[in-house]
Amino acid sequence: MHEQIIISGFGGQGALFAGQVLTYAGLKEGRNVTWLPSYGPEMRGGTARCTVTLSDEPIGSPITDSPTVVIAMNPPSMEMFEPRVKAGGFLFVNSSIVSTDSTRKDITTIQVPANDIAEELGNERMANMVLLGALIRATGVISMKSAIAALEENLPERRRHLLPLNEEALRRGAEVVEKVVRG
Amino acid sequence: MEKKAGFAKPEALTDALTHYCPGCTHGIIHRLIAEVIDELGIREITIGIAPVGCAVLAYNYFNLDFAEAAHGRAPAMATGLKRVQPDKVVFTYQGDGDLAAIGTAEIVHAASRGENITTIFINNAIYGMTGGQMAPTTLPGQVTTSTPFGRDVKLAGHPLRVAELIATTSGAAYVVRRMVTKPATIASAKKAIKLAFQAQRAELGFSLVEILSSCPTNWGLSPLEALEWVEENMASYYPLGDYKVIDEVKSLK
Amino acid sequence: MAKILMKGNEAIAEAAIRAGCEAYFGYPITPQTELLEYMSRRMVELGRVFLQAESELSAINMVYGAACAGARVMTSTSSPGFSLMQEGISYIVCSEVPAVVINVMRGGPGLGNIQPSQGDYFQMTKGGGHGDYNVIVLAPATLQEAIDLTILAFDLADKYRSVATIIADGMIGQIMEPVELPEIEPPKRPEQPWALTGAKGREKNIITSLYLGGPNLEKVNLRLQETLEEIKANEVRYAEYMLEGAEIVVVAYGTAGRIAQTVVQEAREEGIPAGLFRPITMFPFPYDRLDEVAKSVEHLLVFELNAGQMLEDVRLATRDRLPIHFYGKMGGVVPSPAEVLAQIKKIASPQQGER
Q1: Which residues of C touch A (CB under 8 A)?
Q2: pLDDT tens for residues C321-353?
Q3: DSSP string covering C184-216, please?
């Protein structure tokens, strides 16, 4: 396995944290992992993204311009990364705020109304976990169990009480994929 | 423990002959510091830091562990030395160019942090080692090799009053200004130096003794005229006095 | 021992702590600030010295002071701050006291930006400050290597009574990956009869970098050069990857070296006989080994995150005996493996390449 996953959104949408959960979970499963943020002034309100690499081999480059999986949390991320997804890869689109669709036939695109689902759950900040849930269910790069364990270990103390809600968001995201698969 | 006055050399001085010009007051101040160190019995735990300036070779004259700092950085270096061995006594010996021009940030922040070190600040209103250029403490109108028409404050700015400035910092425990022009002022300067070291020993914070000093060579005056010049011109711009003495220091007396 | 996930800056900080770093002085600058923040917490918890200085100038001179006392001491910074530290580093080297400096490089010149860069190569490997000297420069490509080299830096600084540096970049500072933190015995340090600890029961010690008169300073310089020769003889380190049968060898270090590893692997998958030579000590540079490697290959491709700085050392090592190509990105731009691979393909079949 050698997956390079880009999660990209506005600052504050939780792209970096979703990537960390993925990374910790990958480590739990015995993979080689790297998590690389794009950092900078744009972190406040601008674009925040990270590249996560999960691999069975020692990791060379932690960056890529052809990710195997992309989560596009906002329209600029969709515009930037949709063309770059590696053929045969996955694109998860936050369809609550991204209205454009992918025209690519060589990748699997999954529309996830993440903000709407998060609002139903009563907390818009859960959109990142909804998308991560969809990614886990569709790609199987990590197991749901590892993701939840990673969350348990890495939610900051002040957000501990949100653990059940995070788990619920992961499940709701997975359900979106199940519906797509069932048709 | 006070030794009887006499001309035996303090143990804290070496036998080396100094390179200072005739009439320069560095020699007097070196001796005062050495006497204080002897009297406090701290020679074996004291570390000095020499500046860049005329006193750059001070480490040859004191019989103490000594470092030679980059220009203006003695307070930072003292901070490093003291923080890793807080049981030692650390002092810097700095001139006006070193402390009040290039090293202004270092001295202000060392004071502000309440760094438990002592600074002996020699203010002679001129750059001595480089041959008589304007110092940050050069008086208005004073002729130097870089203010040939006299210091015009509109062009060259105003002299900096260091003791007053440092006294405003919360970390300073003891800040005074003295001069060494005659036996009485020399005795007073020695008392101040002693109190500054005592304040450090008592871990009370930053201490600074500013000493108005003479530079006959670069001022173009005889040694005696230079001392008079200190009293007449410098002491009026830089008044002697105690600018900050916290209560704990007062109780050391 | 289980691997734990750490951010680069924090991993370097923890490595320093395990190496027995007794004092840290620093000033905040992106992208190394987490290193200072980590130290501000852990050093205080351990009862060691942490101080945030008023500038990098002060920080390095505090390091100088603590080093004079014989303490294991470190500072960290990023490019503009490293420039400010040059004065102090020059003094420390001349005074022959040990210290460690971490430079997490960012884009320059000037204020530049905070993205990864290798623009400080010249400054770090060719002296940097005034006078004839070099500092030891260690270039990690991964976090595990950053940890191991940080620990090594303290030992080398002690051994040669000089400054050992880590040349990292923003990517190494910011990346998270699993690492193993070694449990370390309290460091065995050389005796320090020179340290300023108070002249008790011995002659006074003087630490200075002032030597008036030509012959005196020349003597010091000759001694410093002797030490550098020892360092060159003993401390050269490098890594080699897929050199067997390689015709095109990429020469890259740090983050670029890491990217190049993927590039070489992909090139091999496409049937291009590529290999990687990755210097780990940038000073001392592995001139001899690179020269040896170059004897059996057709092309070298130097890849750096700058305008071609290590390139000069590669040319020096090989005396330009073979074609040396260069691919570099400046200003904090990090190329993807695909962009570098395209360069290799151009070299492999020039008729297909654009000119």
Answers
A1: 3, 5, 30-31, 113-115, 170-171, 174-178, 258-263, 265, 334, 336-339
A2: 999 999 999 988 899 999 999 999 999 987 654
A3: -PSP-----TT--S--SSSPPPEE-S---SHHH
- Partner-chain residue, chosen from B66, B67, B105, that has the shortest CB–CB distance to C58: B105
Please name the residues in contact with C210: beta carbons below 8 A apart, sequence gap of 6 or more.
Answer: B56, B57, B68
Do C292 and C171 reside in the same domain of the chain?
no
Of C188, C207, C234, the position where a domain reaches its end is C234
CATH classification (class only), B26-250: alpha beta
Predicted local distance difference test score (pLDDT) of residue A156: 86
- How many domains, in total, are found in chain C? 2
> A33 touching C, CB under 8 A?
yes
What ipTM was reported for this prediction? 0.95
Q: Which of A23, A53, A63, A68 to mutate to test the interface with C (most CBs of C within 10 A)?
A: A63
Structural domain ending residue among the three candidates C234, C252, C270:
C234
| A129 touches A16 (CB < 8 A) | no
Distances (CA, A) of B8 to A95, A166, B25, B31: 91, 81, 19, 11
- Round the average pLDDT of chain B to a whole number and report it: 96
- Range of C307's domain? 239-354
How many helices (DSSP H) and strands (DSSP E) are in chain B?
Answer: 12, 7
CA distance C308 to chain A (A): 21
3-state DSSP of chain C: CCCEEEEHHHHHHHHHHHCCCCEEEECCCCCCHHHHHHHHHHHHHCCCEEEECCCHHHHHHHHHHHHHCCCCEEEEECHHHHHHHHHHHHHHHHHCCCEEEEEEEECCCCCCCCCECCCCHHHHHCCCCCCCCCCEEECCCCHHHHHHHHHHHHHHHHHHCCEEEEEEEHHHHHCEEEECCCCCCCCCCCCCCCCCCCCCCCCCCEECCCCCCHHHHHHHHHHHHHHHHHHHHHCCCEEEECCCCCCEEEECCHHHHHHHHHHHHHHHHCCCCEEEEEECEEECCCHHHHHHHHCCCCEEEEEECCCCCHHHHHHHHHCCCCCEEEEECCCCCCCCHHHHHHHHHHHHCHHHCCC
Give the type of residue at C337: P
- Please answer yes or no on whether C175 and A62 come within 8 Å at the CB atom: yes
Note whether C25 contacts B80, CB cutoff 8 Å.
yes
How many A/C residue pairs have CB atoms within 8 Å? 65
Task: Break chain B into its structural domains and give their ranges.
Answer: 26-250
B168-211: pLDDT as tens digits: 999 999 999 999 999 999 999 999 999 999 999 999 999 999 99
Asked if residue A50 lies in contact with residue A36, where contact means CB atoms within 8 angstroms, the answer is yes
Report the neighbours of C using a cutoff of 3 or more CB pairs below 8 angstroms: A, B
Position A175: which residue type? E
pLDDT digits (tens, 9 = 90+) for B83-141: 999 999 999 999 999 999 999 999 999 999 999 999 999 999 999 999 999 999 999 99
pTM of this prediction?
A: 0.95
User: In degrees, to the nearest 5, what angle opens at C-alpha C167 toward C-alphas C165 and C169?
Assistant: 145
* Chain C nearest CA to B88, separation (Å): 7
> Which residues of chain C lie closer than 8 angstroms to B46, CB-CB?
198
